[in-house]
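User: Fold this; tokens only.

Assistant: Input:
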Amino acid sequence: MTTKFKNLGRTGTVLSKKQVYDGPIFKLYKETIKTPDGLEVERDLIDHGNAVTILAMTADDQVVLGSEYRVGRNAETVSLPAGLINGDEDPLVAAKRELQEETGYVAHDSQVMTAITSSEGFTNETVTLVLTHIDANERAERHFDHDEYVNTQLVPLAEVIAMMKRGEIRSAQGLCALNWYLNFVREA
């Protein structure tokens, strides 16, 4: 691999780390770090569990979309199914579990498309983007968390693309999964 980025992949040295918050989904740390460039910097780190985002499609190009209340927007939003990976759970296992829990659909022929990071400046969360296939007639029981409810629909891929263009789908992970699929999987 040829690159002009001399420090690519080099890690910093954490000189000090103090936990300042411990919540149900993430922890917050104040860190002092010596960077690969030799700078000493203070940073906040949101230590967040890894997650999956699932692009689930039928054989006739229908996409599973869900709407759910999201506190970050203080509104109901539309996105692809997604959820946290439990501990050291394999991302494909987590994707299958999350898809069934949220939508009732059963995943088949799942594959990892890629893994992304959304805000490297303050969180260590990695989201694995998974493509899976479903049979619209094969349903299992949904199992929502006590504080969630997801309204699920099958939407034709052409309409999903139109929703993206209109800004009706705004989740970075969902947009990345859809664009990865359209640019690197579907055309291949």
